[in-house]
Amino acid sequence: MEVSIILAAGEGTRMKSEVSKPLHTLLNKPMIDYIVEASCEAGVDKNIIIAGEKNRGVLEENFINKNMEFRTQKVGEGIPYGTGYAVSLAMDDIKDDDIVLILTSDIPII
Fold first, then answer.
1. CB atoms < 10 A from the CB of 110, how many?
2. CATH 3.40.50.410 is held by the domain 2-104
3. How far apart are CA 38 and CA 93, in angstroms?
4. Predicted confidence (pLDDT) at residue 95 exceeds the cutoff of 90
């Protein structure tokens, strides 16, 4: 099975924004939309979005008609963070023979 893990827990604090990074728009569309579309067009069997506590609800609403699974990455002092930790949240859903693609939601034009 081909699985994509889409990292989307960024809060955008360094951008000095109230909007989380994946939801910032580029050409009138949230950046994460480009990533999800590319993953779906590539024929990935399962998409797992690692969302932040603040943006999970919005992301779930945005992708309600797509085959997405969500995991929540907690953010705060004393809580692990970073790419490795975010990916580890999806490990229970991945089998040894799966092909895994790890994508970031804030780099849409690749």
1. 8
2. no
3. 21
4. yes
Residue partners of 47: CB distance under 8 A and separation at least 6: 3, 4, 6, 36, 39, 40, 66, 67, 68, 69
The rounded distance, in Å, linking the Cα atoms of 99 and 88 is 15
Helices (H), the chain: 31-41, 56-62, 83-88
List the helix and strand counts (H, then E) for the chain: 3, 6
| CA 99/CA 96 separation, integer angstroms | 9
As a whole number of angstroms, the distance between CA 35 and CA 6 comes to 8
pLDDT at 65: 67
- pTM value? 0.86
Strand 68-73 relative to strand 46-52: parallel, antiparallel, unpaired? parallel
Distance, CA of 9 to chain centre: 7
Residues paired with 7 in a beta bridge: 50, 104
